[in-house]
Fold these 2 entries.
Entry 1:
Amino acid sequence: MSAYLFEFIGTAMLLLLGNGIVANVVLKETKGPDSGWIGITLAWGIAVFTGVFIAADISGAHLNPAVTLGLAVAGKFSWNMVAGYMLAQTLGAMFGTTLVWLTYKKQYDATNDQATLLATFATGPAIRSPLWNFVTEVIGTFALVFGVMYIAGGTLGDQPVKLGSLDALPVALLVIGIGLGLGGPTGYAINPARDLGPRIMHALLPLKGKGGSDWGYALIPILGPFTGGALAALAFLVIGT
């Protein structure tokens, strides 16, 4: 149970700091609108660093169902724990983004643009093209999961891949690189829980004038990362070390 708990806590911290920067940049009446894309990508890297550092020694700090799936496909994580990890991650994402809403409650009240409100919860494409949006998420998540396996010292033997607290910084730098280099087309969900959990909360929370939660797009930041994570695992099995 401690592993599930720390996946919940780590993912909650990830979303608190990650969606927190988005809220600070795009909502009305905040003090951070000038941070822009650089600020967003740096803050998401710090969010990853914090979540991984907290959870690494207890749960391995997946914080991402695509990472969990990739490690299971590669034989580095028990399939018996996959569903529990994914549930803990999604619930953690829901909780973390709810804390963002509480933090910026007055700014949410002052913002009436539907797209802006949704952007502080879930990702969306710069140009809506389902196939290419999917491809973007596959490539970004492939880079994440493939990189994580080597950062964590993965081999083709029977030893599990597990992040330790010292791996928090290189993983954070990898996420910053993905955000800066690959994040423009879709906002780089690269994590099904990061998108689905907050999108659920967008639908549930009493946001004035929020509009729909864009469920027509929601499968892309779920299926794309899962596909990218699985492909990264297969590539890892072929290439190894």
Entry 2:
Amino acid sequence: MPVAIITGASKGLGRALAEALAGRGWDLVLDARTAEVLQETAAGLQVYGTRVTAVPGDVTDAGHRAGLVAAAWQLGGVDLLVNNASALGAEPLVRLDELPLAGLRRALEVNVVAALALVQEALPLLRASGTGTVITVSSDAAAEAYATWGGYGASKAALDHLAAVLGEEEPGLRVWAVDPGDMATDLYAAAVPDDDDPRPAPDSVVPAFLRLLDERPASGRHGAPSLLEGRR
């Protein structure tokens, strides 16, 4: 069975991706900071009959990252790494003239440094897979200038560039930065708590990720809405 590591997998998009992959027979290593919620998510996936290992912790911790890769090795290797865990930098979001520098450092550490560090940790197993794939979850804030989204957007833009370079340096892998578009997630609610406009559920964009896994296009950046439109 193929093996995936998914960070930020206890809820939202990470959980939706985990459910979809488990339904396809993937074995999973799941990460999140809140152990109780992560264990509940892992327990709910048992209905699919695949092996699911929950490893609670913070992706900025080197020992935790090593534990994720070790758990995947126990399941057979790493075929897919999804860097989904994210930090906003401020909750709710604020203008750049108010952005705490400690918050910006946290966003960069989680969204960029830890993501690259986990890739480095998993790279030998990804190379050995034969179908090694890295997905970094991006944002339209990485490419567009939205007021109050500057710190988060800058971190995602940096992550996009790392993904692009990794795709050039590792031609044997597929490396995709994927902008999922608007979603109703706890992260968005924390970012803009006063926004009551309805947004799509995370599971509605999962078919875009599955299309990439099915068709395996060249490494690059993709938007989920375009992938979903192309499938209609």
